[in-house]
Specification:
The protein is α/β, with parallel strands linked by helices. The chain is built from 14 helices and 24 strands. Helix 12 links the parallel strand 22 and strand 23. The N and C termini lie close together (6 Å). Bound molecules: ligand EPZ. The site of ligand EPZ has 23 residues, from helix 1, helix 5, helix 6 and helix 12.
C-alpha cells in the first residue's frame, strides 16, 4: 500500500487546477443508465471511485470509452457511456462494498428495466449510513422492495408511478436516486425536503439535457414530470468544491498564497466566510479563487456542519487541522455523520490539543507547533486533514493508507509539489 511522506514547513505558493467533482460525477455516470443512447461526460476526474463505478456499469452491460482531454487549462478525462441493453440488473457485493455510491444504479435500473438488485452497502468509517429514504420513496412510487441475503430486490409491475414524497432528512444520495427514477415514472413526482447541494443541480442539468422535465433546481422542492424516454447528451462536470476547499486550507495552514483555478466561489460561501473570519484573504476572480495567508496570524472560529448551503461535513476534518495551529479555541460540531472525528486521535499524536465531547463536538485549542509522525485515517477527508497537518508540522510525517486519498483527490502529490510542498509518494508492493 502506498504512503505519502511529507517534510513540513514549506510555504505553498502558486496555482492548483481544481478537478471535476467526484460526488457530481458518480450520479452523472449512473444517469447514463436511463437511456440506450450515448451520454458523454467531460471534465471527469481520474479517481479510483470513478474507475470502480465504471467497472460496476461495465458488468451491467454499459459500453464505456475514455479519452484524455485538455480543458480549462488542465489535463482531464472524457468518458462516454452507452447501455443499449443490460447484461445484468445486479449490483454485486464486491462492487458495493468498495464504494457505497454504487447505490446510484438502483433508481435508474429499476425505472428503465422494472427490476434491480443491489447489495446493501452497510455502514462505514463515518457512520451507519442507512438507505431507508431511498427504499421507502421507491415503495411510494409503487416498487415492491424485499431484503434477502443482504440484497435489496426491487420490482415494479409496469412503470414506476409519480408520488408526493417528503424526505425525513435532506439526503444527497436519496435525492439523486429518486430524481433519476422519477424522470421515467408515470406522471408527476414531488420531492419535498430534497437536498440542495451543487452536485444535485449538476445532475438536474444533465437530466434536463437528456429530455427530463424537472422544476425546482437549487430548492428543496423538486417537481418531476415523467417522460417515456430519455436521449443522449453531453455534459461538463462541475468543479470539485471539496477539493477546492481542501487546497484553500493548504494555503492557509502554510501561510501561503494559492490560486485555485476553476474553483467556483458560489459553491463555497460558508467555508470561505469562515476562512475570512480566521484572518485569510480570499479574492474571487472570474474562474478562480485566490487564497492568501501570507504573514497572517490566524485565529480560531467555531464551525457547525449542516446541509448545503451550510458548512460542509466533507471539509470538517480539514478545517479542524487548520484550527490546531490557529490562535485561541474553536468549537467544531458535526451534525451530519455520527462518527466523523476519527482524525482527532491522529492529530493529537502530532501534538494537537483537542477535546472531544460525545459524538458531535470537539474543542480545539491552537498550539504553536505540530510535530511530524506516522499517521493513518479511515476515510478520505480525514486522510487529507493529516496531509494538511503534515505540511505545517516540524519534521517528517508519513500518511499511510493512501488508497483513501486516491478515491477523491486527483494527482494529490503532483498538485502539492507544484506549489512547493516537500511531498513524496512512496510506492509499496501490494
Ligand atoms: C453524500 O453522501 C456524499 N457522498 C458524502 O461525501 C457527504 O458527506 C454527504 O453526502 C453529506 O453531504 C457522495 O456524494 C458520494 P446523505 P450520502 O444521504 O449521499 C442520513 C465524501 O467524503 N440518511 O446526504 O450518502 C445519513 O445517515 C463523502 O466524499 C438517512 O437517515 O449522504 C446522514 O446522517 C463522505 N437515511 C444524512 O442523512 C437515508 O436513507 C446525510 O446523508 C439516507 C441518509
Amino acid at each position: 500500500m502506498d504512503k505519502i511522506k511529507i517534510i513540513g514547513g514549506n510555504r505553498l505558493e502558486g496555482k492548483i487546477y481544481i478537478s471535476g467533482a467526484k460526488n457530481a460525477a458518480l450520479p452523472l455516470i449512473c444517469a447514463s443508465l436511463l437511456t440506450d443512447e450515448t451520454i458523454t461526460l467531460t471534465n471527469m476526474p481520474a479517481l479510483s471511485d470513478i474507475r470502480s463505478m465504471n467497472a460496476l456499469l461495465e458488468q451491467m452491460g454499459t459500453q464505456i470509452d475514455s479519452f484524455d482531454d485538455f480543458l480549462d487549462g488542465h489535463e482531464t478525462k472524457t468518458y462516454s457511456y452507452r447501455t443499449p441493453k443490460f447484461t445484468s440488473l445486479i449490483a454485486p457485493y464486491d462492487y458495493v462494498r468498495k464504494m457505497r455510491a454504487s447505490y446510484y444504479v438502483l433508481g435508474p435500473v429499476l425505472a428503465r428495466e422494472g427490476h434491480a438488485e443491489l447489495s446493501l452497502p452497510g455502514g462505514c468509517a463515518i457512520g451507519a449510513r442507512p438507505m431507508d429514504i431511498h427504499l421507502t420513496s421507491l415503495e411510494q412510487m409503487g416498487a415492491k422492495i424485499e431484503i434477502k441475503n443482504g440484497y435489496v430486490h426491487a420490482d415494479i409491475n409496469g412503470k414506476l408511478k409519480g408520488a408526493h414524497i417528503t424526505f425525513h432528512t435532506a439526503s444527497v444520495g436519496a435525492t439523486c436516486n429518486i430524481l433519476m427514477a422519477a424522470t421515467l415514472a408515470e406522471g408527476e413526482t414531488i420531492i419535498e425536503n430534497a437536498a440542495k447541494e451543487p452536485e444535485i443541480a449538476d445532475l438536474i442539468d444533465l437530466l434536463i439535457a437528456m429530455g427530463a422535465q424537472i422544476e425546482g433546481k437549487n430548492t428543496s422542492k423538486l417537481v418531476i414530470q415523467g417522460v417515456d424516454k430519455l436521449h443522449g447528451a453531453r455534459h461538463k462536470v462541475i468543479a470539485d468544491r471539496i477539493e477546492a476547499g481542501s487546497y484553500a486550507i493548504a494555503a492557509a495552514i502554510t501561510n501561503g498564497r494559492i490560486e485555485l483555478v476553476n474553483a467556483q466561489a458560489s459553491t463555497l460561501r460558508t467555508p470561505l466566510e469562515i476562512l475570512k473570519a480566521m484572518g485569510v484573504s480570499v479574492e474571487e476572480g472570474d474562474n478562480s479563487l485566490t487564497i492568501d495567508a501570507t504573514n497572517r496570524k490566524l485565529t480560531g472560529q467555531d464551525i457547525m456542519t449542516d446541509y448545503y448551503p451550510g458548512f460542509p461535513t466533507d471539509l470538517q476534518a480539514q478545517f479542524m487541522a487548520l484550527m490546531t495551529v490557529s490562535e485561541g479555541a474553536s468549537l467544531v460540531t458535526e451534525n451530519i455523520w455520527e462518527n466523523r472525528f476519527m482524525h482527532v486521535p491522529e492529530l493529537m499524536r502530532m501534538g494537537a490539543n483537542i477535546n472531544v465531547h460525545g459524538h458531535a463536538s470537539a474543542i480545539v485549542r491552537g498550539v504553536k507547533q505540530l510535530s511530524g509522525a506516522p499517521v493513518m485515517a479511515t476515510d478520505l477527508r480525514a486522510s487529507f486533514a493529516l496531509i494538511l497537518a503534515g505540511l505545517v508540522a516540524e519534521g517528517e510525517t508519513i500518511v499511510n493508507r493512501v488508497y483513501h486519498l486516491d478515491r477523491g483527490y486527483e494527482k494529490l502529490d503532483e498538485k502539492l509539489k507544484a506549489v512547493g510542498a516537500n511531498v513524496e509518494r512512496i510506492k509499496e508492493a501490494e
